[in-house]
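Exercise 7.
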Amino acid sequence: MFGTTQPKEQFAIDAIDALAYRSTDKPTFELSKGAEAMANKPLWAIAAECLQHAGHQVDIYGNPELIAERAMQLGGLDRVTSFAATEDRRYIGASGSPNATPGDFPNILSGLANKFLDTVELDEDYSFDQVSALMPNALTDFKPMPLINRGTVDELDELQDAEQFKEIGLEEEVLSYVFVRRFGNKFGWTPKMIADDDMNAFSEGMLGLQEAWQTTQNRLVLDRFTSNENLLDGSPLFADRPDVGTATNNNIRSGGAVPSDSEWGEMETLYSDIGGIGTQQRVRGSLNTILTPTGAPAQAARRTFFPLNRDGLENKVASTTAEVGLYRGEVAVVPESELRSVSASTWYGMRSPTRLRTATVVRGYFKGYGTQGRRERWYDPGNKTIYVSIEGRIAAAVKNWRYAVKNQVA
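Solution. The predicted structure, written as C-alpha cells, is:
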C-alpha cells in the first residue's frame, strides 16, 4: 500500500479538507498534518488509496482513468443526501438517505462538494433576504395555499367590574396564493476529470450551482415587486386604493424623483395615511428600508441616508441643514442591479420588510429541501459519472401591500 496508513474515517476527513483547500481561491481553514500530506496529491491517487482501504489490489503505475473508474463505483448506486452545515433544521425533516461508507471515494467527492459550498465566498450582493421575510413553517404541499394576512390589533376592550373577557377580533384577508416551485441542476465527475486532476472544473461547477440557487431566489422575490401583479382584492400590489374613512390607502407615488430628504418625506406621508384591514386605523412606524436600482437612484440614496464619515473613511462636518439630513443612519439602503431590467429609476420604500408582520413579500421552503437547497450524490453506471446536485423548492408571494410604497420617477 502506498500513501497514508491512517484509519479510513480520518483519511476521508483529511482528503476532503486537502481537496477543498486546493479548490478554494481563499481558503479560511487550517489543515491537519494528514491533510497537509495530501494537499498536493492528485485526485486519482486519492481514488487509489480509497480502493486500497476497501481491500482492492491497485496498480499505482496503471492507467489513472481506470483507477478512477473503479473507485467511483465503491459507493454503489444509492443516492446520498446532505445539507449545508448551517441549514435551518426546521426545513430539513427526515431525509431517509442511505448511509455512505466514510472512506469510499464517492463519499469523499460529495464531502468535498459540501465543504466547498459551505466555505466558498460568493458575491453577497443578493437582495432577496433583505427585502422579504422567511415563513417560519416549512411548506408541505405543491398545491396552491392561500396566504392569510391578519389586520392590525385594535385597542383592548375596557371592562366593567366583574365583566368577562371577550375574544379579541382580528380582521383577515387573502391577497395571494403560495405555490411551491422546483429548481435544480447537477455537476458531474467523469473518470477523465479525476485522472486529469481537474479541480478547476469542479470549482467552476460548484460555484455555478451555488450562484444559480441564489440568483433563482433573488429573481423570484424581486419579480413580486416589479411585476406589480393583481392581488385578490382586485388591485395591483402598488395602487391608489379606495379610501376608508380618513385613510387614503395609496402606496404608489407617481411623478416622483430620485431619493432625497424631500422625496422620502413624500413617501412617508403616503405611508402614514394607509389604513389597516377594514379600518382607518393607521399602519405603525415609518419607512426604514429603500430598495433601489443601482446607478443614479442608488447614488442619491447613499448621499441621502448614509451617515457622514461612514466607516471612518471621511472626515466631514455638515455645513448646511441639507447636509445634516433628516434620515441619515435611519434608512437601510439595498441596491439591486436586477431592478434595472425593468426600470432604472423606479424604487421602493418599505417598513421592516424582513419581519413577518410587516413583510410585503414572503418566501417559503419545502420541507425536506432546506433553505440552501438539498444536495444529492449518485453514480450513473451508464455514463460512468458521479453527479452532485442542488435542488431547491421555494415559494415567493405577496403578503401585504400596506408596508411598501413605490416611487415611480417621472
